[in-house]
Amino acid sequence: MNAPATSLPTPDASGEEERELSHVDAPAFPEERAPGGLALQWSTVRVLLARDVVRFFRQPSRIVGALAQPILFWFVIGAGFSGSFRVEGAQDLDYQRFSFPGVVTMVVLFSAIFATISVIEDRREGFLQSVLAGPGSRLAVVLGKALGSSAIALLQASLFLLFAPLAGVTAATLDVPLLLTVMVLSALGLTGMGIALAWWVRSTAGYHAVMSIVLLPMWVLSGAMFPLKGAGPLLAWVMRFNPMRFSVEGVRRALYGAEASLAVGTASSGAGLEVPVLLVFATVFLGLAAVSISRRE
To answer: Which residues form the ABC transmembrane type-2 domain (predicted)?
Structure first.
């Protein structure tokens, strides 16, 4: 009599499938990496720069005033002084041609300084405190504000430079690389100065007062309104050490050539030094602005 057939254990199919699937590699997904330190710094700079530029274009009155104010100043002042302006050794130099580089620098100065008034407003509204609490460094915050304000200043100055042919500027004397370098360094230095002042002054009224006491005399004593050759001994000494003089003379040399600086008596004391002096000027005041906003309340 045959014994009953016993059923052999069948392999667990589900176990085999699990073992097979365990050898299959899982799909690789790219790991999200935290942004590096340099990327965070650049993001801070880019956001602040774009914010100032966008805010400028959303205010049509600032765009109109950026072009109307220097034009009126140049024509009115030029017409008023044209009959009495004389420079020894340069009888053919009229006042409108002499004052044009100074007005270009004035546009950069006033545009950069007025753009940095937003530091007081942003600080009062708490925006800057939020930015300073972020991952960006103090230097990145200063560079973002300085680049945004400088971009606005350079845009306004570029619009005014469209009238350069009326001031006797020709392609033969125009030095575009020197002009751009001088204007960029001047704008960065002046915005750095403006940020440092705006951080210490808590009201826009006080900021305007400081501007009229410090910054406006810097422009007047830069050779923008009267030449160094005709100044008295004391004023001539102040003008020689005024960093704004190198801005005006750099623009003058870029527009008219070295002969223009020679005519007003500055070629022997400042020719070729504009870019190095303005580079030091911009570096010092950007650093001073970074130190200023680092102080605790």
So the answer is: 61-296
Q: Which two tokens stand for residue 27?
A: 């799909």
CA separation, residue 134 to residues 13, 155, 236, 273, 288 (Å)? 56, 30, 47, 39, 21
Can you list the alpha helix ranges (DSSP code H) found in 58-134? 60-81, 95-115, 118-125, 127-132
Q: Are the CB atoms for 100 and 164 separated by under 8 Å? A: yes
> What is the token pair recorded at 140?
């990145």
CA distance 290 to 134: 15
List CB contacts of 64: < 8 A, sequence separation 6 or more.
Answer: none
| Token pair listed for 253 | 């040399």
Confidence band, pLDDT 50/70/90 cuts, at residue 279: very high
The winner for highest mean pLDDT among 79-88, 101-110, 203-212 is: 101-110
CA-nearest of 232, 228, 221, 214 to 269 is 228
Tokens 């600086």 belong to 261
Q: Are 263 and 90 in contact (CB under 8 A)?
A: yes
Q: Give the range among 86-95, 97-106, 244-253 with minimum mean pLDDT.
A: 86-95
**Model pLDDT for residues 199-229, shown as the tens digit of each residue:** 888 788 888 888 888 888 888 888 888 777 7
What is the spatial distance between Cα 183 and Cα 164, in angstroms, rounded to a whole number? 15
User: Residues 38, 56: contact at Cβ < 8 Å?
Assistant: no
Name 260's Cβ contacts closer than 8 Å, sequence gap at least 6: 93, 252, 253
Q: Which stretch of DSSP H or E encloses residue 47?
A: helix 37-57
Rounded-to-integer distance, Cα 197 and Cα 175, Å: 33
